[in-house]
Design brief:
There is one protein chain. The chain is of the alpha/beta class. The protein has one domain: Rossmann fold (3-Layer(aba) Sandwich). Helix content is about 25%, strand content about 20%. The protein is built from five helices and six strands. The protein has a six-stranded mixed sheet with strand order 2-3-1-4-5-6. The termini are close together. Keywords: Nucleotide-binding.
Length: about 140
């Protein structure tokens, strides 16, 4: 699997997605600092929510092959500024999480990730595992 960094607001599902992609047991917890796995970097949501941490995201992504931008469709706010992905100069993949939740707005999440600069967008549910296989295969052959 190619190396990726996961970026998203607190609660977007970054840690859960990593656990699912790496076949680890699910453990609900708050990521407090950068966490490095074999091929993935988990970032705290505050790194997106506070612009002063953008430099940390940029530096942490240097060795990565791709950027994963996660958006929960239940979030009414898009924290990614337009063109956000251009600061990385890497392949950027959008991931709409929690698609199994009926109160989500998929169209709004899609617009958010497209505006941020995602090249391709996947829709997944870590709960039902819908879309996980396709994302995993895509990351393997990126």
């Amino acid at each position: 699997m190619k190396s990726v960094i996961l970026i998203g607001k607190s609660g977007a599902g970054k840690t859960t997605l990593i656990q699912k992609l790496l076949n680890q047991p699910s453990e609900n917890r708050k990521t407090q600092s950068l966490e490095f796995f074999s091929s993935m970097i988990d970032t705290p949501g505050e790194y997106l929510e506070n612009k002063s941490y953008y430099k940390a995201l940029l530096v942490s992504s240097i060795e990565c092959d791709a950027i994963l931008l996660l958006q929960d469709p239940c979030d009414e706010v898009c924290f990614y500024p337009p063109g956000f992905a251009t600061m990385f100069n890497k392949h950027t993949i959008g991931v709409i999480t929690k698609i199994d939740r009926y109160e989500g707005n998929i169209e709004s999440a899609m617009k958010c990730l497209t505006s941020a600069g995602a090249d391709r967008i996947f829709m997944i549910s870590s709960y039902t595992e819908e879309g996980l296989y396709e994302l995993k295969k895509y990351l393997e052959y990126l």
